[in-house]
Amino acid sequence: MATSTRCLVTGVTGYVGGRLVPELLDAGHTVRCMARHPEGVRDQPWAGRVETVRADVLDPPTLAPALADVDVAYYLVHAMGGGGDFAERDRRAARSFADAARDAGVRRVVFLGGMHDSGELSEHMRSRAEVAEILLGGDVPTVVLNAGVIIGSGSASFEMLRYLTERLPAMVTPKWAGSCVQPIAIRDVLRYLVGVAELPSDVSRGFDIGGPDVLTYREMMIRYAKVAGLTPRLIVPVPILSPWLSSLWVGLITPVPGAIARPLVESLTTEVVAKEHDIAAYVPDPPEGLIGFEQAVELALRRVRSGDVSTRWSSAATPGAPSDPLPTDPDWAGGSLYTDERELRTPASPEAVWRRIEGIGGENGWYSLPVAWYVRGFLDRLAGGVGLRRGRRDPVRLRTGDALDFWRVEAIEPGRCLRLRAEMLLPGRAWLELWIEPDEETGGTIYHQRAVFRPHGLLGHLYWQSISPFHGLIFGGMPTNLTRKAEHEPNPA
To answer: What is the pTM of this model?
Structure first.
């Protein structure tokens, strides 16, 4: 490549955006990352190779500096979750981005859309199709890549398929499980996204992208079980269970919450099969061919089992989740702040204690009464929240923006402080801070823990008062159990 293409990537804290950036860099492009919260990019392994700017597609004045001197702009923004006005937000965001790209002289816009047939579309699929129309109708040449089910470690579609198949050796499947879909491996999606950066300026259209296999969802579960080494699954189709009920069922069985499961299920109610493969004229198929479904599953499982999952569907903020930063003023002007603070001295080294702090959650648990956390997570799932099943992206390391069960890493200062923001459904905002400092007197460590709750209205105050008696069970044992584990940790060689 004679010259480096200057690319802007939106949605960099999401599943696809976080994987696209290193692919563009490896292809020799210059990358600028756009995020509402740039701190979520700071801990990415490629962060030092990119420029990061703060901007919001719903705040037009912030887009001009983000798009300045950009050749190709990747629009990877879409509201997967709820909120009655999500379609209007998507509409306004797309129009603002298209106008800003025109004014900045951007050479091309690229959008990853959803493959669909010409029949009746769900609200979310209609919104994605409308975003594609808005971008294609703008003054900047645009490529829309329409994908169906994306198979890759950490994708929402893969996680849904994986957990449904692994946790249910026998199941009844609704009518939509018999619809034909054309899954595509995330590696092929990224190859197309990178490849279209160099398309001629007269190409402005949508392309369907899919893998080499056309399968029903039922066949995908059967094949997944085979690749994963599971016993054959007993699958009985039934002509009932609406997408809404299915999303609740998926939300209870898998880590994917109902707010995200519903648009995924709704996209499967009709056939999702490519009508053309014109993209091959511009981004040719590799000599070995496109990645088949079973190979894509095998590649994804290999990454899951090795803990090498670079991004997950939960990398992006959960729909409806709070985003307010922790109030730092103890006398917060907006009202009361409730806190639960604990401190403990331990002979364990700061390094050993920090390893336990950074490894908290997921399979490692929360160092307190497990049943209390399980019940709280289960109640959150019943109410439509994320619950505990999101787990961790990595079993050992955390980075800013990571989902951690029903928390999200708001800030991390390696070796010193971890701050988590609650994403469970609450009548208020909640944070949990864990931090350490060396104990100069003993040579050990002082462990600090603080839970903070900012109530919303009377219900918020009543909520805190009602759960306060249980804080001893939930938070009381954490300092002792966590530091005890650190004390018994073998010294690294």
So the answer is: 0.72
